[in-house]
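Throughout our pipeline, every protein is held as a single compact record rather than as scattered files. Such a record has a labelled line for the sequence and another for the backbone structure tokens. This encoding replaces a full spatial description with a residue-level series of whole-number codes. For reference, a complete record is included directly beneath this paragraph.
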Amino acid sequence: MSTVLRHARLVDGSTTDVLLDGDRIAAVGPGHSADSTIDLSGYVLLPSFVEPHAHLDKALTVSRSVNRTGDLLGAIHAMNEIADGFTHTDFVRRADAALRIHLAYGTTVVRSHVNIGSTFGLRALAALVEVREAWRGVVDLELVALIGHPILGEAGTNLKVALAEGADVAGGCPHLDPEPIAAVDTCLGIAGEAGVPLDLHTDETLNPGMLTLEHLADRVLATGFEHGVTGSHCVSLGVQPEDVQRRMAEKIAAAGMAIVALPQTNLYLQGREHPVATPRGLTAVRPLLAAGATVAAGGDNLRDAFHPVGRGDALEVGALMVTDGHLSVSDALRTLTEGGRAALRREPVAIEAGARADLVAVRAVDANEALGAASPDRFVWSGGRLVARTRVDTQLATSLDGEVAP
């Protein structure tokens, strides 16, 4: 089945036709016929979005929990208070609902961290494995085993069990561990033994004295770890002196690591101890990009104790990367597409012949409006198949006496 997308606007401002054949872009340019045609006049065409850091097991629970302090530890406590009430059906229902939200907005690749151990046990993982398989072929869902601490104790054993029970990636929060450096080493060792990627919640704090990211980069360089390493959050890097940021960025790039910036949740959770001149809860995005490091941006939590709002739309995250990270529109869009695929080691997608046809078309006159207005009016393709379509109909009264039809 072939489809030609007519009059699509690209990020560079040009307009072209795009021929889809099977799961690939067969050609870009005019003069092609196909089994079906979609007119994309008035839409901007982009590679579909990547969510490199979600928490589908916690999603859509804000009405059940109260983060009394508003910070990270308060959110953890709030989630633990309600975790016993989560059932398999509840995990599946909420994760499925969250994926539907992401997909409708144009996200076709999702990496979700899943709590392991403590009050969650393996319950959330079993449910998310079920959701992963149900969506296979439409949404590429990857699961990270997010263990508790101390990692040198039972949590390390839990990580091995979770990887054997269906988790795709090893994860943890070494900066919260009593022995953060040893925790990094343990997680890296377990991931290496299992032959899986590692994605750590790293230095999710504005404390400049906590910089486990450097040890992680040093160990990746020393061991030649080949399965892919991601540092998520890396907030403390954002408050380091310029020379430290530059040195760290160069080391991260040399190690081939990826950094995931999570502006929504970190802006909400971080900085509450600084009521005046509150620092940004964001990693050193610009130095990382300048050094050639892989930078992706994600939404993190979706309406739970860690972040009570959010649309589940990658373009909402991208707008914050412009506002908070001081990126250009084009650079921000790359953190949602190219950066996410590189971080998750997925096949690159571009609007060119031969690329996989994972695409999103957003109603807008250009890329600036696509990111700035973020119209929910979108087409979404996964592997060349149209898998989501949202239409928006707005009617306005055009005079003082006018009114619209109900």
Observations:
- Residues 2-48+350-390 form a domain with the Urease, subunit C; domain 1 fold (CATH 2.30.40.10).
